[in-house]
């Protein structure tokens, strides 16, 4: 492999990273909308059943080379950040979620 080939691969990674950032922000926007529904219905931010469903879905979807456990660790962090955003959004509107 040449340095030019490696640079091309890195450019592809950079492009994928930008797509991931866009997708994560789209996911966060949807989570904020769900937070609005939860607020209206007086539901808590944390829903362990739904979190389990999300984890099973993403782990089952992974075809490798990342193992399901690695995907789970990544999504644990994504969900933590999403939950934090939901709480902040609800607190700004005057509610204090569970």
What does this structure look like?
With 98 residues, the protein is mainly α. It has one domain (3-92): Chorismate mutase (Chorismate Mutase Domain, subunit A, Up-down Bundle). 79% of the residues lie in helices and 0% in strands. It has three helices and no strands. The chain has helices spanning 3-40, 48-61, 68-92. Helix 1 (3-40) packs across helix 3 and helix 2 (48-61) runs antiparallel to helix 3. It is elongated. 4% of the residues are buried.
Summary tags:
98 residues; mainly alpha; Chorismate Mutase Domain, subunit A
Helix percent reads: over 70%
**CATH class membership:** Mainly Alpha
Distance between the termini: 54 Å
Q: What is the assigned CATH homologous superfamily?
A: Chorismate mutase
Rg over CA atoms, rounded to whole Å, is: 17 Å
Q: What's the total helix number?
A: 3
At the third CATH level, what is the topology name? Chorismate Mutase Domain, subunit A
Number of domains: 1
How does the overall form come out from the CA principal axes? Answer: elongated
**Mean pLDDT, all residues:** 91
What is this structure's SSE topology?
Blueprint: H1 3-40, H2 48-61, H3 68-92
Helix pairs in contact: 1-3, 2-3
Concise summary:
This protein has a single domain (3-92), classed as Chorismate mutase (Chorismate Mutase Domain, subunit A, Up-down Bundle), CATH 1.20.59. It is built from 3 helices and no strands.
